[in-house]
């Protein structure tokens, strides 16, 4: 501390620069001298009273600022690392999900292809069965028609035979009836002749 500054402080505290006490009634010259202090002296007094504290505060503020800046830098770096890690994780998850979706799509395509092929095979089998059934039905119908024709032919032959037999029987019965009628006529004539003879003899 400079001598002039110490003298100014002592002068304000009631002592003269020559270590003399200043009484309140000493014509007011001391107060006049205080009022005439220059702005430089006030700055010196402010520096004496608050300089150390201000410097300490400035140092403290600087340390706080440095610490905050360091922490902010560390936080920003940590945040960047976390964001990079999160981005990498999200990218990995997206790639994994994309791969799963691709595999599922391939599996669905294969399943759909298998189902389509199976459906095609079933349709072909059904068409083949329907064709075979149609062929069997046509064959059965042809066989049934042939059987009906054969039975009808046989029935017609049987009916013809029965008709011929019946006709022959009728002819035979007719001939017999005619023969019996002729015999009755002859017998009647014979009886008539015999009656006439008997009558003539009588």
UniProtKB/TrEMBL annotation:
Keywords: Coiled coil. Residues 1-28 are annotated as: Disordered. Residues 109-143 form a coiled coil. It comes from the Bacteria. Residues 16-28 have a biased composition (Polar residues). This is SF-assemblin. It comes from Chroococcidiopsis cubana SAG 39.79.
